[in-house]
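Lecture 7, part B: from sequences to assemblies.

Below are the input chains for today's worked example.
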Amino acid sequence: MQWEPVIGLEVHLQLATHSKIFSGSPTTFGAEPNTQASAVDLAMPGMLPVLNEQAVSFAVRFGLGIGAVIGKRSVFDRKNYFYPDLPKGYQISQFEAPIVGRGSFEILLEDGSSRIVGITRAHLEEDAGKSLHEDFHGQSGIDLNRAGTPLLEIVSEPEIHSAAEAVAYLKALHSLVTYLGISDGNMAEGSMRCDVNISLRPVGSGILGTRAEIKNVNSFRFVEKAIRHEIERQSEILDDGGEVVQETRLYDAERDETRPMRSKEVANDYRYFPEPDLLPVVIDDAYIQAIRDALPELPGDKRQRFTEQYSLSKYDANVLADSRALADYYEAVVAECGDAKIAANWVQVELLGQLNRDERTIGNCPVSATDLGALISRILDKSISGKIAKQVFEAMWQGEGSADGIIAARGLQQVSDSGALETIVDEVLAASAAQVQQYLDADDAKRKKLVGFFVGQVMKLSKGQANPQMVNELLAKKLV
Amino acid sequence: MSIEQNEIAKIAELARIRIAGEQIGQVTERIAEILQMVEQLQAVNTDNIEPMANPLDATQKLRPDIVTEENRRDAFQAIAPAVENGLYLVPKVIE
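Predicted structure of the full complex, as structure tokens:
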């Protein structure tokens, strides 16, 4: 039978606050174990949580970014389970009354099309610490630095139907939250962690099948692999007439398989109840409006504007608006050189190409947008050819200075002096008598091809610095 | 509302409370009595009444996002039963 996967994603997003959600401890990544765990984070007796305003503000910003209903009165609840990296014995989360209600946003699929995916809700909660199970004489080591880091749990509607769509959703979400500036989106440091709910149903059926949940998948690639594997596993069970068991599974990246979580890792009865240590959070219209007024341009709007303002293709706009940093860089290049189309080509081909090769991001790009814009200006004013510009760019990348400096130092200025060019053209024609004769004997169609030979020779002799347009004009004049 | 012994055993396990086998009947009876008392409240009509999250008629104060805590690991770990390399050591939690 043909099965249709139905996938819902729960993303735990670390919010980019300086301090924790309920205490004044720092949230810096990578600190020495337990140096960022205060008495509140350690659940010392009598300690009380105090809510971080920035975490609330970031959550509201996200809600406005997906056009969601904002919970003007939201309530924190206790989610009860025992695990040593959760010292209180409960996680403070939101259950009945989350801060962000239903919303939606646009995701871009691989074929360049887009679609809208619904968000069921998003709520604030605290992160747990980390358990290290290496050999501490048969014991586990606990680091509570991460305990209390603010998380926004973003729950999608079950509207995703393939591994590729799930990845597209995560990429769009990553783009959105980094545009909003509410998270650094650093996957390697666990800033975006994902649980996947997945079930299969016969194609065309409106009824949901029994789902399995895959916990804690930490990269786009693993999400894709875990989902592919799980679809295969479930369809094999269903094809054999079996039933999928509702359970929590872990993705094992090394073996590329999912396996059931051990019973001790599964807490299936959280006994939520309202957190008595926190009062309801009430936010008013003025608070929401102030956040709305400060919203940056969002990815979808920026893509739209790029196609209109700069006449870019949809594809180019999608690439350039992928991250806010890249989009800002591109616009700074355009502002400097004034040609949106050439700027788009240079940013996408040369710049992104070099960044990829060097495994860098736009954030630590060695060539500034103004410098790249200045280089493109030299192509536009015909000081250098596009080919020479690539050499100059290479030198700029190596830190040899600005475009103008490199052009001057290396003597790369395009030769547009007609006298000097004429000498070179004459030299080439004198050395290529046979080709000149061949050209003169040929018809118009063939001549067009043959002229390329002479242009090539002139370019070679001028070390690529001859103005191609002038060379063509000179050749047309002389080859008669 | 009545409650069965196996439910009490399950709740006790979730709450990590050890109840000796011979006591579980007695505990179940007592909790059932409490539930009976609470059951009287079910008679009250609560249609259109929003659940109360907190008895105080007040709303949450928010604090600015400023780091105010210093590293006091040494003081906290001085009273911990076992530490190593800055980590708190606990009985192994995975099989």
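Note for the exam: The longest strand of chain B covers residues 87-91. Keep this in mind when comparing with the next example.
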